[in-house]
Structure formats: structure tokens, C-alpha cells
Amino acid sequence: MHVRDAVASRFSCRAFLPTPIPEQTVRDIVETAARARSAGNMQPWRIDVIAGERVEALKALLRPRMGELPRGEGAEYTIYPPEMNATFRKRRFEVGELLYKSIGVPREDKPARYRQYARNFEFFGAPVGLFFSIDRDLGVAQHSDLGGLIQTVMLLARGHGLHSCAQQAWAFWHVTVPAFLELPPHMMLYCGMALGHADETAAINGWRSPRAPLADYATFSGFTA
Q: What pTM was estimated for this model as a whole?
């Protein structure tokens, strides 16, 4: 698959088939993704991959605690700033409305929305879960590096015919998940990711988040042709 096709076809998949993924496929994705750039070649990341019984064990650990949603244990870092300008707020609201509209859940039905949100912690049915962590002493530049790695993982997954969903929702279990993964104390859980084959028949996979027009975010100058 050409990289342009991988970028164009990537989306946040929220319904997966249970089809197992070979360990070697995931190893290839993760090892190749480490070619992602990082400032000073620091490679400031850790990736924990789980499948099979480990996925089921984590689901079982969290299942009795779904009543704590949406906050869970709270995140160690601020995902969304408390004050957003109208443009960012509108984009975030719009994508949420599109998601819940696709599965016929009205805005006022909060229990149904929480049930869908809780699907994050089942990896949306995916057979493989990945967790990305970073040393808590590092700064903004290294968080940017981690984001580049995460995107690279998702694009390489497309090259294998797989889909993914990056899940910052996992940051809200910043006590339970690191303990489950036996993360060293200096590592901060940043996000999770679901990985597998998309369920193409699922309505929730049938929409795409909109993107702003090029003129809204880019300028070009100095070209002669």
C-alpha cells in the first residue's frame, strides 16, 4: 500500500472483528515504527502490547469499575484545555455528534453514550491492545516524538490491511493499567490503541471525521512553478 493510501484510509475504528493477529505481524509494525523521528534520536517511548488472555484479563479487571466512568482514576495530564476557543470547541462537538449519530444515540441519552464510551476499555472488540508510555520527566518536544511514533504505528498497520484506534481514554486508568503492565514508576501511561481487522458492516465505522480546508491551516509562498 502506498503511504498516501495508508494516510487517506486510516480512521479511528470503533468496531473490530475478533480475528487474531499473528504476533510477528505486530512485532514488525512496532519494530518498523521505531524509525519514526525523534529529537536527538532520544526515542522516548515504551510500547506494551497485549493479546489473547492478557486482553481478557484487563477487561475483567476493569469491568466491575465501569460505574466510575467517565472520569475513572483521572488522567495524569490535561487532554483538553479547560478553555478552548470557538473553532476548537466546534470541531470537538461536531465529531462527537457524528459518532453518536452513526449509532442512533441522541445527545440526551447519556447512559447510552457512557455505554459506548465504555467500549474503549474493551478495545472495541479488537484482539490486540497497545499501550504507549513516556518518561514523566520529559517535556513537550518528547511528547511530540511519541505522537509521531503513534501515527507511524497506525500507518504501518494499514500496510498490513489492519485498522486501529488511538485511545487517550486509557489515560483515565493511570493507576490500574500501569500496575497491570508492571510499568516502572518513572513511566507515565500516555494512551492506548486498539488494533485489528475492521468490522466493515458496523455503522460506527461508516462515517469519517471532517477536516478543515487547506486554506484554514496552511500558507505557501516563494514558489515559481
A: 0.95
